[in-house]
Amino acid sequence: MSVREEQYPEPHSYIPERWLVDQDHPLYHGNAHPNAAVHFGYGARGCVGRKLADMEMELLISYFIENFRLEWRGKPMPVLQSVSNHNIGPYNLVFNDI
């Protein structure tokens, strides 16, 4: 379903911004069926590497927490609320060695 014109405009083009645009933008994905893009799959036919990818992300985050002191410098970051909330830069996060 994720490559059908009735679900997404320009479905065969690599446009990651389609997940970040506002509702009035022509590439907005909000009119698509909720299950049109299940990136890792679901159920018995789900991606076999999903758990591995999740575990690698956890290891990466734990590495940063163990080896760096994180500091935020500057104003609070604005948040764009859409299908998934995400922050709008600039990212004033500083990684200091411990």
Describe the SSE topology.
Blueprint: H1 50-67, E1 68-72, E2 79-80, E3 86-87, E4 93-97
Antiparallel strand pairs: 1-4, 2-3
Write up what this structure looks like.
The relative contact order is 0.14. The protein has a domain at 38-97. 18% of the residues lie in helices and 14% in strands. The chain is an alpha+beta fold and 98 residues long. The protein is built from one helix and four strands, in the order H-E-E-E-E. The model has no long low-confidence stretch (mean pLDDT 82).
Short synopsis of the structure:
With 98 residues, this protein is α+β, with helices and mostly antiparallel strands. It is built from 1 helix and 4 strands; from the N terminus they run αββββ. It has a domain of 60 residues.
Summary keywords:
18% helix, alpha+beta, 98 residues, flat, 1 helix, two-stranded antiparallel ribbon
Tell me the series of helices and strands, N- to C-terminal: HEEEE
Major sheet: size, sense and barrel closure?
2 strands, antiparallel
Distance between the termini: 48 Å
Radius of gyration: 18 Å
* Helical run tally: 1
Question: Number of DSSP strands?
Answer: 4
Quaternary organization: single chain
User: Hey, roughly how much beta strand do the residues contain?
Assistant: 5-15%
How confident is the prediction overall: mean pLDDT?
82
**Largest sheet, order of strands side by side?**
1-4
Q: Regions with pLDDT < 50 over 5+ consecutive residues? A: none
Shape: flat
Helix content: 10-25%
| Helix-and-strand structural type | alpha+beta
